[in-house]
Amino acid sequence: MDGNPRGSDDPGAGQGALTQLRAWLAQRNLPSNARLPAERELCELLGVSRGELRKALAVLEGEGELWRHVGKGTFRGVRPTEEISSIAAMANLTNPAEVMRTRALLEPQIAGEAAVNATAADIAALEFCLERSVQTRSWRQYETWDNRLHRTIAVAAQNSLLLALFDTLNAVRRTVVWGRLRIDPAGPPADHHSFAEHQTIVAAIRDRDREAAAAALRRHLAAVEANLMRVRDAAE
Questions:
Q1: The pTM is what?
Q2: CATH topology of domain 84-235
């Protein structure tokens, strides 16, 4: 029998596996792109079941701590950008306005799926992103946590194809920018509009409200686009 004697119906088992995996990674301080042991070996090392381990791996993948490649294994760090020439080609064919319209079409649907399918670990990861984003002191830090929050929503949808589409769109978005000029160069103000908007999105996902989650993300993207346009116009 695979894994831990507590059984998969123990409500604390999944969180315990995540804690064990975090501790194991912290002790080894693996370099970026180092491959982790196979799942069976990790289960034995951590004393957890295969199901518990996979949930923990999914959480850390959503946080950008790990990446997985079917048939090759699990690796430390952020997934390397694949088919860079393809992403660059798409970026050359599009523009920021198209990117925002595409986000408005795709991401609200992903949020709705997340509201239906998110696990307790997914919701905990979203709340962690919320907490860290409001503590940031620079735009770069904020954008890191903002990006992680949106990707964690995509992970919570529990749909590998939707996640792949999100990752492709996100790679294009990070290539196609209006520029990094901001009205306040220091960092996001305490009343930055995205803080409350993100909280509303996560609350709807936590409440399992598909329509509210989709609507909240749609409103958030509209506010993001309006703010980007305002900053662009002010810079011209």
A1: 0.64
A2: Four Helix Bundle (Hemerythrin (Met), subunit A) (1.20.120)
